[in-house]
Amino acid sequence: MQIPRMPAGFDAAKLGEVLDGRWADVRVQVRETLRDTELPPGDGLDVDSHRKLILDQLHRLAASGIPRLGFPGEYGGKGDTGGSVISLEMLAGNLSLMVKGGVQWGLFGGAVVALGTERHHSRYLEPIMNMELPGCFAMTETGHGSDVQSLRTTATYDPDSEEFVVHSPHESARKDYIGNAARDGRMAVVFAQLHTAGQDHGVHALMVPIRDENGHPLPGVHISDCGHKAGLNGVDNGRILFDRVRVPREALLNRYGDVEPDGTYRSPIEGRNKRFFTMLGTLIRGRISVAGTAGSATKLALEIALRYGDTRRQFENPGTGDETPVLDYLGHQRKLLPALATTFALHFAQEELVSTLHDLHNAEEHDERAQRELESRAAGIKAVTTWHASRTIQTCREACGGAGYLSENQLPQLKADTDVFTTFEGDNTVLLQLVAKGLLTYYRDQFDDLGTLGLARYVADQFVGTVIERTAARRLVQRLVDAAPGRDDEDEIFDRGWQLRLFEDREKHVLDALARRLRRATGGDADPFEVFNNAQDHVLRAARVHVDRVVLEAFVAGIERCADPDMASVLERLCDLYVLSNIEEDRGWFLEHERIGTRRSKAVTEAVNTLCQQIRPHAVSLVEAFGIPRQWLTAPIATGAESARQEAQRAHDRPRD
Amino acid sequence: MQIPRMPAGFDAAKLGEVLDGRWADVRVQVRETLRDTELPPGDGLDVDSHRKLILDQLHRLAASGIPRLGFPGEYGGKGDTGGSVISLEMLAGNLSLMVKGGVQWGLFGGAVVALGTERHHSRYLEPIMNMELPGCFAMTETGHGSDVQSLRTTATYDPDSEEFVVHSPHESARKDYIGNAARDGRMAVVFAQLHTAGQDHGVHALMVPIRDENGHPLPGVHISDCGHKAGLNGVDNGRILFDRVRVPREALLNRYGDVEPDGTYRSPIEGRNKRFFTMLGTLIRGRISVAGTAGSATKLALEIALRYGDTRRQFENPGTGDETPVLDYLGHQRKLLPALATTFALHFAQEELVSTLHDLHNAEEHDERAQRELESRAAGIKAVTTWHASRTIQTCREACGGAGYLSENQLPQLKADTDVFTTFEGDNTVLLQLVAKGLLTYYRDQFDDLGTLGLARYVADQFVGTVIERTAARRLVQRLVDAAPGRDDEDEIFDRGWQLRLFEDREKHVLDALARRLRRATGGDADPFEVFNNAQDHVLRAARVHVDRVVLEAFVAGIERCADPDMASVLERLCDLYVLSNIEEDRGWFLEHERIGTRRSKAVTEAVNTLCQQIRPHAVSLVEAFGIPRQWLTAPIATGAESARQEAQRAHDRPRD
To answer: With a CB-CB cutoff of 8 Å, which residues 305-344 of chain B face chain A?
Structure first.
């Protein structure tokens, strides 16, 4: 087998420029700010001190001006949506700060921007940006997290006083896991079922004060503390129960639905479902930020594990008499290097996602279809990236042995802090199901009754509409696919066109089969819930392979943008490792469906091994190129302690060397 | 496809008796003790208070007499080796206590029993059992963890004073991660290279006092603190550096090697390697305890997630108007139920392992071969069980969403505490490599030079010697395999004989191919390190599939022991789910090697889905049957809070129901 080779050496700084991408200026700016501002993550502090520390840091971050990036220019912001996501993900070494900042500026501030109108913007945005008004995003309830449409908090309009009455009728309706609620929040954007004139208009959001200026809860607002969590203990998550709390009519964030003084309801969007999904869609930035931050945290964890693996030695090589660096072991490489390649792939997918968000946000005309596509993409990439983070950070911990278990080496905190990413801002399983339902709408002709499968609302909204639509570098991908060799050449597993075609083909086949299966099963008097549920593993898989294809195309597009041929060829090898380790992991399916034969399947495993060995000498440079701010790299095992020990031992073992 | 059915209902208490097994009396006794003794795990305490709490609890546990189980009868113990392992694993709800107890009685006490002689036993065992003498097991060093043979601490005999001088020549030689060292230990069993009369005799252990009676470090003993860890913060792990510390000649634990007053070295075992492995082999109980505890912690995590999944509802079923319990979703079942089935399988494998340990320990004659086999089995099952624990507890956390991230719901602590199990008491990857090397000795005729592959020492010791030797229920397994149907019947995937044959065949094929590959590669002037390293993924896989077969045979044997046909048929379905989900996960290999065809491969996936749905109604009863002590189940979501909320919401939604 002819395996393409890595360049003998390359300039990590140059690769860093390629990776910095479209928001290189923001990355450089944040790196500089972080160089001058100590923001220790507060590991080991008790909960109270940790929360206090992070609140102080939030004020300092506000003073730096960075949080203004994402707010509209006319209210003192910078109007740089993409930059705001990038700047947040760069806080990966202090995830309590990132999440608390995300709550304040992304979720709370973002909801006021997206769902409010001028009267809210002019009043609240400046104090939100400068942290005079710490706030909460009170959506999730104890009884309803994934199913936001079924929230139980009510906001009932009282025309006599021209007020809304916000109420939690029982414990399930209590707002739960709300960041900034337990300690610091003064106001909350509260999501509630809007009732007026005897009618229920579905979920809307209102500005509800929750604490007075001394920090005491207001009358009727019962706040409790979620207490200690697995991680993110610098964030004060709490629970809020409303006992008939009155707010003025103007508290309603009224961009997508308003109530007139007499109680008449008006909305620019017809249809409860469409209104709900439109409102939710404007809040997509939070989900994209979580994906970005999960990616950054993964890079930091990999940097620690790879630096350690590069210097840590264990077991003598009888041939040389030297102890072997653990990263020289194939088993160790296989733990870390395919994960590194996937991290590169997801980096480019994330960059593309942020770009699309930014461009849609700044577009002259609202493109409904593109917006729905962005939401689907964001859901899928968030799920895949956060699972990748959980798995990879866990692997990095194990790859560092006992040292990886010590808090001083950062991996425990990274693992604990990122762990919730797979279930907050959308539970990953629920998100993948959303993605699949969107893809299934392509097959709408094949179904008699879409409603029963829960697909109707996607079709009505023309959610996605076409299957296997190229997402990036469309022409390039087509050219590569067209030029791909036939089935007989073993080397073709390194052919990008062959790889792209294989991913496309997998997606199409899984989706086609799913649609056929659902159609068959819906005949007769089958219970539609059961039909869909019996195929849930298939549904989730369809979404997963779709995302894998989207990610690969983004990687290919990223390489195409890279002008320097040396850098491009480094990225090509990482892309090979990403693709081939993905195929290897899924070779059960490829073989089952006769997409590859047994000989080629074995060749893929061999190729993954060879690529690992090729990339191994460059592993540390590659991970450095991500440019994680140096403030975040504090683990002694990754910053010299281990290599100093190895030196000392060697000096002792061979004093006359 | 004809799928065998679960019984409509069964008696969970009866199943509990089956699972309690050979040490049912110990389990009952420990459950009773735990009912009367509050031992809260100390979540949320600061490190100092946590350590103090756990030390107090250790004294109370000592007072209960339970730790005496594993010590010899003639010194006040109960001589029940198996019972001591079982009793330790039952502390799964307070893992700091389990680990600190494991250090004190299992590792420290166990080393004194196994490596010491009468003079040590009569002096130290009583104060070890009653906690008057808290101690450490000082083996691992900063520079050498997995490679114990290369430890750098030295113990040099000085015939003039008849003392040993214990010394750490540099920082890599510092003892590290040592439990009981940072705060409480008074004495340590220190592993060091023994030098006498100018010769190095390899690793031996000595009793070295480290603190005086006021708790101050003794002269020359430099102790530091490992600080905060991911979990197990009730255990005071520390580092010890010895600066020419002198201990009397009698401090040497001299069962396998002694130094006479004039400095002459004597050992009953010839050969440095054999002596080293014999000494290490006597310490196997710690590894077996870790596997048992990982299993218990997994059961507790599954009980929390399954109880929550059974009551938690999300999304309305349009057909019924009710919200759906999340465990009714196939995707949720697939997360938890194959993991539950695997937990049953590993339960029986662990029971068998403990039984073998116990019987060998009590055997009249020492059976060297059986001992080596036990060590291999222990290594493999420890690796597989602790990885299963890490993965399953992580899955349980995610399956509980935000609630699973709150410390009050126990999963964060369970995850953090068990996380180190995959790398302590033997790094899992290193352990699997050991298992594989043992298996490869069967092929010794095929190699010219075993030494270069690191196999020589196993062959010399007749480590394992035969491949695919049945490990449990030998005759039954043979009968089932012989009666297995041919290849054409689709239902045969439920035939136990077919399943057993498939697992055997996989193991044999992977091993045969590995041996061939290594033999081919060792020809000529190939670098033997490279040869072995290039095949490391294959090596690890060989061990893994070997362990899978051993586990399946243990499950089959456990079912055979079960006299009640109803209970047996419940276990049969769990065994099916264990086997078929294992095959599904590995179907890439089975297809690649044409062990199953594409049609059968798809049938396996379908069967896993059906089994999940069959088992789902019984999930809570099944996990309850493990009999985890009720003291350990405190998560509000698993003890009524969630069902109370569901009731309240329903009462509010339909007041007139």
So the answer is: 314-320, 323-324, 328-332, 334
